[in-house]
Structures are given as C-alpha cells and as structure tokens.
Design a protein that fits this description.
Chain lengths: 373, 373
Amino acid sequence: MADQASMSSLSLEAAQRGQKAAVMTAPDPDDPLAAKYGDAGLVASQAVSGRVWTRVEDLNASFSDKEVLLRGRVHTVRGKGKSAFIVLRQRTATLQVCLFANDTTVSKGMVKYASQITRESIVDVEGVITLPSKPVEGCSQSDVELQCRGIRVISRAAVLPFEVTDAARSEADVQAAAEKGEVLVTVGQDTRLNNRFLDLRTPANQAIFKLQSAVCQLFKDYLLSQGFQEIHSPKLIAGASEGGASVFKLDYMGTPACLAQSPQLYKQMAITADCERVFEVGPVFRAENSNTHRHLCEFMGLDFEMAINEHYCEVMEVVEGVFEHIFTGLATRHSRELAVVGQQFPFSMPEFKRLRLTFAEGIKMLQEGGYPD
Amino acid sequence: MADQASMSSLSLEAAQRGQKAAVMTAPDPDDPLAAKYGDAGLVASQAVSGRVWTRVEDLNASFSDKEVLLRGRVHTVRGKGKSAFIVLRQRTATLQVCLFANDTTVSKGMVKYASQITRESIVDVEGVITLPSKPVEGCSQSDVELQCRGIRVISRAAVLPFEVTDAARSEADVQAAAEKGEVLVTVGQDTRLNNRFLDLRTPANQAIFKLQSAVCQLFKDYLLSQGFQEIHSPKLIAGASEGGASVFKLDYMGTPACLAQSPQLYKQMAITADCERVFEVGPVFRAENSNTHRHLCEFMGLDFEMAINEHYCEVMEVVEGVFEHIFTGLATRHSRELAVVGQQFPFSMPEFKRLRLTFAEGIKMLQEGGYPD
C-alpha cells in the first residue's frame, strides 16, 4: 500500500509536470505481440543470452535494413494516436525510434506502452534500421532511424528534478525561442549541481568528461614516447610542500601531517634518484580561501620533471611537444566530442603555435603594443 | 674558507671509508691532452651545442668502432697505474669505460683524473666502442666497452651515506662471498629509507619503478581499448566513503571534511550519469592503525566500474582481460626490467591463467584438498 501511495504521489507530480499519470508496464495478454514489449525483470545475472547490443554512435546508412538491438535512455518520447517516436540516447549519441501500429509487427498496445515510458528510463529496443527521406532533426544519427519491433523497459525512471533535454539546451536555442514568443525551460546551476548525476547525462557534459579523459591520455602518451615514466608521490606528508599558510593539516595517528600542495619535492627526488624523466597526474591540495572562479582547493595536476643535459630549451621542447600532441589529438581523434560540446556551448578551438620569444623580442612587442616603459 | 673546511672534513671521511682523499679536478696545463678532461662548469643553459648523447642501454655490437658521447653516473672506478676502468651507469644499464695511457689519445694525467672521480658523480664520457675478447662481467652491456678519449665531471658527488653498488647486491652474492671467507658490505633498510633518493638508484629499484609505471599504462590502455574512460574523483569529501572509523578527518575552511577511503560513490555516480565504463588511478586514504606489512594508510588504487547488460560475467571478462594484458605486457615488453629485478631479488613470473569456478567446483576442490566440511 505504501508503494501505491508513493506511486500515486509520483504520478500526481508527473501529471503536474505535463507527463502522463497512468503508466502501462505490461502488455494486454490478448495482444498477439504481447511477447514483444513490457517491463523486463531486474537484471540479476540469471543467464548469458549471447545477445549483442549495437552502439548508437556506430549506426549509419550502412546499417540499412539490418536488425539491431540497442540499450539506451529514453531522451524524449512522443505518442500520437497510432504512432510513437522515441529519441534514444547513449552518451553523446541519439537516434529516432519509430513505432507505427500495424497488424504484423507493431500493435496498438505496443505503441501505447512505448508512449508511456518515462523519460530517462533505460530500454532495450529491437528493430530494423531504415533511411529516412530527410535527415532526422535534433538527433546525432540523423541519416538513420529505427523501425521498432520490440521494446522493454529495463529500468523505469521515476519523476526527475529536471529533464536532461532542458539541461542540454543551448543559450542560442532559448533565445531563438524567446524571439518567437516561446518560453523554453532552463535549469539553474544550483539544481544541476544538486543533481550532478543527472546533469552529467547531457551530451555536452558526456563529451567534456570524455575530452578530460582524452587530455590525460594524450599527455601521458606523449611523455611516455619521450622516455618519461609515471610516478605517484605521497599526498599525506609531514610538512608543507610549498608556502606554509595554504596547507590542509590533519592528524596522522597522533602526529601532525599535511596534504601535499604539489609533487615538487618528490619529482625532484625522482630526478636525483636517476629516474631522468618523470610525470605525475594526481590531486593537488591547496587550502586557499579564495572564492573566485579561478581557485580550486583540490585539482588534478598534470606535472612533469626532467633532467637537463645542457640548456633549458630541452624543457621548452617537451612543453611545446606535449601541448601540440594534446591539441592535435583532440582535433583529429576527438572532433566528435568537440562538436557535441560546441552544440551547447559554441566555441572555436585555438590553433596551436610553437612560439619562443627572446627577452629583446618581448620588449619590442610590448613597446609596439603601446607600453614604451 | 668554510667551503675548504667542509671539503677537508669530507675528504677525511672519504679517506676513512677507503676512498682516495686527494681529488684532481683540473688537468695539468702542460698535458697535451688537457682539453680532453677536467671538471665541467655548472650547466647553466649558456648554449645549445647540438651534441647528441647516446643511451647506454642502446649500445651493442653494432656500435663497434663508432664514436659516442655518454652521460651517466660513475658506478665504480678502479685505477691501476697506467690504466683505469669506470663502470658507467644509466638507470638499469651499465657499461665498462677503459682508459689505457698512451701517447696519442689518453694521457697519464687523464688516467689519474679518471681514477679519482668519486662514485655517483655524473660524467660526460666520449670515446670509441670496441668489442671485448670476452664478455664484460657485471655490466649489463657485456658485449661492448668504451675506449675513453675524453672525460669530464658534470657534477662531482660528495661522500655518500652508502654505496649504490653495496645497495645493489643480492643476498646470493653476499652469501657466496661469505662462503669464500669474504665480507661484503650490505645496507640496512633504515639507511636505505633515510636516503631513498640514493637507494632508488640501484638497477633493481630503477626497474621496479619502471614496472610500476608500466602496470599503470597497461591497465589504462586495456580499459581504454574496452570503451572505458578515465575519471578523477574528489579526495576531499564531506563524509566517510566507507566505514566510519578508519577515516582521516581535517578542517576544510571551518567545515569538517574527510579524505576519501575509496572512489566508490563517485564511480557509481559516473555509471548513473551514463558514463557506462570508467576507471580511476588515484590515491586512497585509510586511517587504519595497523602496523603490519599488509597495511598502508595511503596507496594507489587501480579501480574500475562498469554497467552490466545482463550478467556479472561481463565484469569477470574485463577483470581477466586486464590482468592478462598486464601480465603479457610485462613479460613481452618489459622482460629487461624483470630480469634486472631478478638479478637482485630472484623470482619467477607467475603464469597467467583464466580461471572460473562454479560454487560446486570450488567445494569439490576443497574436499579433495582435505577440507571435507
């Protein structure tokens, strides 16, 4: 009974937010296609079926007429009488899933069931890939769509504090709608941060996290190719690594300890220990009570240290090389993620240029720029 | 004056430890080969000479009769009248450098200068690679040696708390010597840990750190190939991640905070946020006051989390795959480092086998092993 009460309270909320209150979770047993839809039981490692799921991002025109099985989130759902359209989302990729009631492959019950799936539910969808007559607007896989032949909810989403579609909207879209007199819902920063797991589902955030991972790999791969090795230095240390004030202090089994403000000492000791070239990707802790957009008390440091044979330009070459490798790597191997971020937050990639100025050239540039003294 | 005083006190210590007290840092100006040896000035980024240093580990018979320039540590040095032998060390690689006084390429002064270089000094050595009539014992590059034609100390080592050669000795070597009635110096654990930068210069420790870096890369590379992405979760958090007792607590700008005992919550949130497959390599903090060989209050966690489609065996496959990749990668790509560790600490690599037992099979094995209940 408690469950029912809570369900009806959820349904009320859902109704208030414009969603359908009634939820159909099982097919009508008289439906000849009853085996093709309905909520699945809890995934409980009962058997290995051998079924193979296709990735949404891999779908393109070459899949035409092929049968696929997909697992993804219901990004949006639209039911219209005898048809339903679901946008299925997998990380940064979206696909239109179509259901048109007919007598052979899609029943009216199936359309009704699909129409009532709550957004953000996880579903398994089976069907045939077809090529739409014109590109599907607003889907990343715009040159294909799926004719649904079976759909099961794997995990049904309850009412959410905000819609991922609303959180994924660009400023430009909101403004364009406003100019047409429409008001599009936006999601404030506080709401996003209080529900970070949901905010991270937006394609732009998915892409940002993928790019963050990529930057680390590009940094490491380049340095490894240049004879560096990775080290991990202690974060719990006996004294301040740098200035004395901005350090987090703690009790280490009765002894005072600090959190490392940088791996500096350990990197340098590694060089003295003949490691020659080392790098670390690890957290850095700084107890700076500066509440600006440019300060973080904890951040990931991408750090390297190397022995110099005769000139500091050897270090400059590595710095230039690592930045060039990162920028080129992002532009060539991760253009898709960059484009996804750009859809919500338009930007242009800076062009990487190696630049070395002598002191005299720097002075000259300053003077020419209007700073004669 | 203070410098001289401290130098003579160092020399005295050196003499007590059996090293030569006198130190020759500059050649006799009347030596016709005076330009070929003597201490170099401080490396101060004055000019880019364009000189190319060869790596000791790269040297082999194909370098015969070639001129090379090497920078490394003086591992051992032995002067005998008109000849001197230096073992030059670069991380895990060592090479014999020979000086025989003659009238054209090596002067008596040069031999004397070389004989007096303190162990662990950094030197630049130039010369011609030759093939010894029999393999050089105790050097990693045993099929080549260098006929020195020029030698300069780049950084002269002071008297050290222990010799790297003594720290690099295996138990077997010490025992074998003892059986012959010789006593070889060994270095205690405390002395090593109090001078960690020096202890890490032993070939075995160099190899261990290289292998540690390799394990991280193999872990990451495999998971990246399986669609995982790297995340970095916060280490400063508001509450305990796991059990309440064994957590380090600290003051975060007037608010109580904890150090993360695991990235568990954040990994799981990443999955809920549709990241699908994530991993983290990062520090883990546990305030367990257990002073055993099996406990560390801070360690690097190699951790991954993934969404399961239908069965936990999907996770087992990844676990098996990652271990197989690491073991195979070490055995194939890092056999040299494994061999170097084995010279000081003999071991055999475990063979990796994929093994899955059902509960029934496990019970059967226990019963057959003498545990019937």
